[in-house]
Amino acid sequence: MPTIRDRGKPGKGRFQVQVRMAGFPARTASFPTKRLAERWAVTIEAEMVEGKHFRNVEARRRTLGEAIDKYLETELAKKRTPAKAMHGFTLPWWKARAGSIKMADITAPLIVDLRDKLAREPYRRAKANAKRPTIKTGQAAPEYKRTPSTVDRYLECLGHVLTVARKEWHWISHNPMDGVSKLSKRKGRVRYLNTDERDALLRETRKDVRLHLLVVLALSTAARAGELVRHLLWRDVDLSEGRLLFRETKNAEPRPVWLHGEALRLLKDHAKVRRIDNDHVFPGASGVGIYDYSDPFKAACKAAGLVDFRFHDLRHTAATYLAMEGATEAQLRAIGGWKSGVVKQYVHIASSDAKDVMARMNKKHLGGADGE
């Protein structure tokens, strides 16, 4: 029960009220009228009963900087490599600009102001002293503006910090990100290789055995670069069945794919000269680490006359070829690992049907007989 004392002194704080409840720190406040004191006491008692009071106390005591530090210490290790890197470079931006603000004062309007500042401010990404510098010493680095999709990624990272602070740490009673809109995103890329472009690129990649195998596998399987280069190990390759298993994927769901024709033939040849000291299918040049395909691929694209083409566009190209061969939406999602609430329940069925679709696509667009 609250205790209300009449201090007998006219003025702003005549009635002093104190609320006590087991398991919570006592709360004390003063009001000019007894009615206001009683209303406040009822509100505080209700918050204590509902479990909100502790969060409100923490929100007034903790800062956003503390939340970000705790998140980086306890949550970052749980994330996969791409998400880990994204949180690692976005959260320091929020901490630098709002780290000293109490969690109770982190509001939707404040986040919106910071979001707009993030979108407006220029930034530099080139450093002369970097491991692989793109500018010369003394040269000024060019300035860029963040795209709407980049700003949205910053918001997503901060939003997850606030979600964990609410659900697990109980530092706040609601997530202010609920009142913040993301910026409109640009349309997704639709770049893919037509027949002439594909032939030109493959003519150039044939000059580099490893690069050619990587590009053909990407076109054959619609796999991501990281799935092929960083995560594909020989123990997950079945050459007799022509099957790869991607254990680590962007969606954290293992995904099998089948190889046919030229892709299978090239991989069998590659297996004959594989390194025994590195289980990666694409190890680094000296056997340490993984294959750095970036510069060779850019050079091949330039020599082939391709404009605005990225390695990830090979994945879209493969998906386009598969769709041309009549692959259903469910089959495409099973092959490439795209997620959808609508088709997810059919993915395990479509994954077996997808083998025939992939065989037809490979035979038409990449040629060759299976494994020969």
Would you mind describing this structure in some detail?
By secondary structure, the chain is mostly helical. The chain folds into 3 domains: 3-50; 64-179, DNA polymerase, domain 1 (Orthogonal Bundle); 195-365, hpI Integrase, Chain A, CATH 1.10.443. Helices cover 48% and strands 8% of the residues. It contains 14 helices and 8 strands. It is elongated, with a radius of gyration of 29 Å.
CATH class of the largest domain: Mainly Alpha
Q: Helices and strands, in N-to-C order?
A: EEEHHHHHEEHHHHEEEHHHHH
Q: The biggest beta sheet, please?
A: 3 strands, antiparallel
Rg calculated over all Cα atoms: 29 Å
Which blocks of ≥5 consecutive residues have pLDDT under 50?
342-350
The number of distinct β-strands equals: 8
**Helix count from the secondary structure assignment:** 14
Q: Strands across the major sheet, in which order?
A: 1-2-3
The residue-averaged pLDDT reads 83
Overall number of structural domains = 3
**Range of helix content:** 40-55%
The CATH superfamily name of the largest domain is Intergrase catalytic core
